[in-house]
Amino acid sequence: MVTHRAQNRSTFFYFATFGAKEINLTQYVKESNEDWTIVIKPQSGLFDIDFKELIQYRDLLYIFVRRDLMAVYKQTILGPVWFFIQPLLTTLVYAFVYGGIANIGTDGKPRLLFYLTGTVLWAYFSECLVTTSSTFTANAAVFGKVYFPRVILPLAKVISTLFKMGIQMILLAIAYAVYIALGQYSFQVNGYILTLPLLIIIMANLGLGAGMIVTSMTIKYRDLQYLVAFGVQLLMFAAPVVYPLSRFHGKMLLLLKLNPVSAVIETFRAAVLGGVVDWPMLGYSFIVSTILLLIGFLIFNKAEKSFIDTV
Amino acid sequence: MSTVIQIDQVSKMYRLGEVGSGTLTHDINSWWARIRGKEDPNSKLADVNDRTTMTNNEYVWALKDVSFDVKQGEVLGIIGRNGAGKSTLLKILSRTTLPTEGTIKAKGRIASLLEVGTGFHPELTGRENIYQNGAILGMTRREITRKFDEIVDFAGVARYIDTPVKRYSSGMYVRLAFAVAAHLEPEILIVDEVLAVGDAEFQKKCLGKMKDVSTNDGRTVLFVSHNLAAVKTLCTRSVLLSQGTVRDIGDTNQIVTQYVKLNADHMTRRIDYKGEGHAPGNDKIKVLRAEVTPELISIEDAITISFELLNLTHFKKLKIAFDLVNANEQIVFSTATDITINEREVGTAKCFIPGNFLNDDIYSVWFYAFTDEMTHLLLLKDMLNFEVIDKSRDYAYLGKINGVIRPTLVWETSG
Predict the structure, then answer these.
(1) Could you give phi then psi for residue B48, rounded to 5 degrees?
(2) Is A16 on the interface with B (CB under 8 A)?
(3) Per-domain residue ranges for chain A?
(4) Nearest C-alpha of chain A: how many angstroms from B337?
(5) Do residue A63 and residue B103 have CB atoms under 8 angstroms apart?
(6) In contact, A83 and A63? CB cutoff 8 Å
(7) Which tens digit of pLDDT belongs to each residue from B347-398?
């Protein structure tokens, strides 16, 4: 092991330099400063982030992702089928309430496909946000006992939620195929679909960034926790999930466009159901999401070090 | 031997009371002071950690200027009363919290048995949890796979390895957790009161493993325990913490003696009201003096309990007695004697308890006085307290030995 070798070298060095029993500790420490593998000191700067450590713990990330996927539906009969049932029922309810009762237009797109394309990415964002924002409070027991980079947990959630989103994508594909087979809609998927990885990254950034800010704050002020739970639901109406942007004009439209989630959902719809992409709006969305992630990460990193004293 | 942990002037301040709306103003004060490069106004207020006194102060130093070094391959004992700062120190060492001041430097991975089972997910099987717990402790999947059979074997749960751990007994749970941590091969292992759980056989295994880890592999163990027999047997050097500071560090036997003395300061080993008016008792009998000797009682020491009484009644023939009550409030025994004291005169009595008779425990003396016709004169509950401490053992089991008393008896064996 590397550390062992380093230690032996320092021992040798020490004996060679200072001889027998009198330990000149301060000098010894100064000489072999780089041999310390762990240095624990009071809270320092904002940018005191150990990326090397994150790489060391990559196996833990893998194991947490696996756990998230497996533990959720253990001791259920339907198991992973639940991944299908939830979004399917949600979409049907949307189609019934917003389409059927409220009669909000869908830009001429089939209702089911319209709502499915809206909710797939929205659900991903909202699940990332909600799970990340309870990172500290939900894992206080473990965090209080063992050290590992805390950010691994929200990262694992973002990745495992990706699998759920994948399954919803399959659902969307099946629904799409059914519409085409019945001759009710034509195949409209186009080149814009190549932006999908970017769209997912933006959603992950937003969910993770906002979630990390919220969870860092909830350590001391639990108020935010309650806010997030229904805030996310309200936020959905500030994004074109259950309605098209084309319904709005002027100030209202600008306001909706300021929501970084709007561009992602509109772009995805355009890619799957046909339409045009508003590139400046997508660029704005990407920049906002990156800044949010950075801020979230810094705040999280600062909070994780002493949260156990206040939680 | 080189130093593997260097603890330098470590302090930790805690805030007491509830976190609520008042918190925000304090936070803003601290933050504003930091920005201007001034000392945190709240930290000046902090008290030393003494749980018994009540102050209005919200801030308290759980640790204050703690410094010591740990050498490679040593098993260092950390002892102290509840509230001495042991847990806080361990929390800082295991990096679940940061010190307020000072630094700790260490070489190699630090794994703590504090976390016994906490990294476990109840829905996952033993196998899945071994991987997860190992990874939490910083192992790679390959390392765990390599050690997997050894871990299962050590924990003795081979049959249940594919059962969710929520169905495990608490013993199995702990065994599995210890096995993972012990096989992680950390350079520094923190063991906290692990002996309180598990059966004798498993304790033996754990202690064997700890010895093995330090002597054969040159790894370092920090051992925190209230079990003085275990500390005496395993550790050559110990640290005594008291009210958040290092009281002393050195040879374990000497440190344990100090620790017991410190405890004894909080007990009434001796009362002495000779010549004073407010001696305990009533208008019939007063206890002028009472004492337990020797000052420090090891399990093999004979104990003398002496009394000096003032008789204010006209009865000359009296009976005095005491109950010896242990920490579980069980009466270990009751003993009585006749004594003759003239009216308004003083009499003395001594009771001798042989060595190798009481178990290690904290005892309390409940004193009674009667007339020879058994008319009740006086009862003083908790008149004296003392502690009997265990000695180091040369066999593997280091847990508390069962029984209210622990007499050395005559055995005859053949075979």
Answers:
(1) -70, 155
(2) no
(3) 1-39, 51-310
(4) 55
(5) no
(6) no
(7) 999 999 999 999 988 899 999 999 988 899 999 988 898 988 887 777 666 6
- Inter-chain touch B121–A63, beta carbons under 8 Å: no
Chain-chain contact of B98 with A36 (C-beta, under 8 angstroms): no
- The confidence band for A2, taking pLDDT boundaries of 50, 70 and 90, is very low
Closest listed residue to residue B106, CA positions, set A210, A64, A3, A271: A3
pLDDT number for residue B202: 72
CB contact under 8 A, B96 and A37: no
For residue B71, what are the CA distances in angstroms to B2, B109, B124, B185, B305?
Answer: 6, 15, 38, 17, 43
Name the token pair of A134.
């309870």
Rounded average pLDDT over A10-38 = 45
Strands (E), B254-312: 270-272, 285-293, 297-298, 303-311
Residue in A36, A75, A309 nearest the CB of B97: A309
Q: Does residue A308 belong to the interface with chain B, where contact is any CB pair within 8 Å?
A: yes
Least confident of A125-139, A212-226, B44-58: B44-58
Higher pLDDT, A36 or A266: A266
Residues in chain B within 8 Å Cβ distance of A62 = 141
- What pLDDT does B173 receive? 82
Question: What string of DSSP letters covers B191-226?
Answer: EESGGGSS-HHHHHHHHHHHHHHHHTT--EEEEE-S
Number of A to B CB contacts under 8 A, please give it.
Answer: 133
- Whether residue A9 lies within 8 A of chain B, CB to CB, comes out as no
| Mutation choice for A interface testing from B136, B140, B165 by most A CBs within 10 A | B136
In the prediction, which pLDDT does B210 show? 76
Mean pLDDT of B141-153: 89
Residues of B in contact with A40 (CB under 8 A): 92-93, 95, 98-99, 103-106
A77 part of contact set with chain B, CB < 8 Å: no
Whether the predicted pLDDT of B304 surpasses 90 = yes
Nearest to A42 among B93, B99, B110 (CB): B99
Interface contact flag, A74 B164, Cβ < 8 Å: yes
- All residues of chain A having their beta carbon less than 8 Å from the beta carbon of residue B132 are 60, 63-64, 67
Tokens of B30: 């601290």
Rounded Cα gap, residues B382 and B366, in angstroms: 5
H helix runs in B305-409, sequence order:
none
In terms of C-beta density within 10 A (0-12 exposed, 13-18 middle, 19 or more buried), how is residue A240 classed?
Answer: buried
State how far the Cα of A56 lies from the Cα of A51, in Å rounded to an integer. Answer: 9
- Contacts (Cβ under 8 Å, ≥6 apart) of B346: B288, B308, B309, B310, B311
pLDDT score at A262: 93
Catalogue all structural domains in chain B, each as residue range(s) with its CATH number: 3-108+187-263 (3.40.50.300), 270-389 (2.70.50.60)
Q: Are B132 and A39 in contact (CB < 8 Å)? A: no
Q: In this predicted model, what pLDDT tens digit does every residue of A77-116 receive, in sequence order?
A: 777 777 788 888 888 888 888 888 878 878 888 888 998 9
pLDDT bucket at A125, cuts 50 / 70 / 90: very high
Q: Least CB-CB distance to B96: which of A10, A39, A143?
A: A143
> Is the separation of the CB atoms in B376 and B370 below 8 Å?
yes
pLDDT of residue B6: 92
Q: What is the pLDDT of residues A241-300, one digit of tens each?
A: 888 888 888 888 888 889 999 999 999 999 999 888 899 999 999 999 999 999 999 999
The shortest C-alpha distance from B8 to chain A (Å) reads 10
CB contact under 8 A, B138 and A74: no
User: Mean pLDDT, to the nearest integer, of B64-89?
Assistant: 89
B357, two tokens = 């008779």
